[in-house]
Amino acid sequence: MAIIQPLWKSDPIQYILNWKFPQLAAFSIRTLADVSKTLQDRDISKEVEEYRRQLLSSSPEDFAASLEQAKAAETKRLVERLESEERQRSFNQPHSVLVDFDYWSTISFWTIDEAVSLSLKREPRHLSWKHIQSNASVSAFAAQYAARRELAMRAKVMGQLWESTTPAAFLAWAGRTNFSVPAELVAAVKGLGIQIADWKTLYDQANEVAQSAQALVKEKHSALMAAMADHSQSISTLTEGYNGLLAQRDELIGLKDNRIESLTAMLADMERTLSTPRQKPLGARERDSFLKLVIGMAIKGYSFDPKSGRSTTAKEISGDLALIGLAMDEDTVRKYLAEAKQLLPGDQTDRDR
Predict the structure, then answer these.
(1) Cβ partners under 8 Å of residue 298, min gap 6
(2) 28, 240, 274, 296 - which has most CB atoms within 10 Å?
(3) Is 170 in contact with 140 (CB distance < 8 Å)?
(4) Cβ burial 134-157 (10 Å sphere, 16+ → b, else e)
(5) For residue range 129-149, what is the model confidence (pLDDT) as tens digits?
(6) Gap between the Cα atoms of 248 and 281, Å rounded
(7) Handedness of CA 134, 136, 140, 145 (dihedral sign)
(8) Using one digit for the tens of pLDDT, what is the confidence trace for 152-169?
(9) Is the pTM here over 0.90, yes or no?
């Protein structure tokens, strides 16, 4: 099939002439001879011929400008004609545009065609889908109606709408799918105290509440588990510290027992020494041995520091002796310790040599 090119492309000069002289377009004139023959009784034939010569002799830029001007004028005339035809169609007349939203809000259900008509601010009782469908290719409103009806019919197939749908259910579907509807229609339905919702909307709302509650419970659970972990760590730290204190206590008790054992042994030796009949006082060698025994047990058993000017060892020994029923005052113990430390090597005492 041959493709028919538009006149502005196949014969741009004639296209411009038709724009400049609308009478030519009415007679479908194609040649200058036709112009002279058709317009022989008219005065414009010379004007047409003169303007044609001007176009032929004009620069490419000027010719292109004239062509664009003619195309723009034709487009404008076409738009104005289509708008005029659109205004004259029955579904754009006042009786179709004036909608009683209050009346339609009280209807128990809407058909698909009624709902689509109301969404476009048209009175459903004055519209016919058959008539609109026949104008869908030439009318902007009819094309829009057909497109919106297609959306609603597909929603019906999927069970989102029905052939008889309540106003609340339709408006809820429209709000969920961005299917625009007049604010006046929504206000009229809400004015009756009707909640605009369908099962999908109610389900989505309930699901949203459930998810929010689940998220809150999860957050609270995480916080509780974190607190329990911190508490467990604190208990572990306290237990570890307590066990450390028990170990220190046992160590101190053991050290005390060792001191008592050493002191008991020392006293036993002293008792044996004192109970042994002596024909004469201890000699210097025996006394030194006794003092060495005293200083050795004091250092090892009581951590006695011979270099310390102030020591509590004498007090501790005197106290431990009292615990086992043997009395010896602190000064006596201190005297023996002072004598005994003189026997230590030179690097362990400050005594004068």
Answers:
(1) 304, 313, 317, 337, 340
(2) 296
(3) no
(4) ebbeebebbeebbebbeebeebee
(5) 999 999 988 898 999 999 999
(6) 46
(7) positive
(8) 999 999 999 999 999 999
(9) no
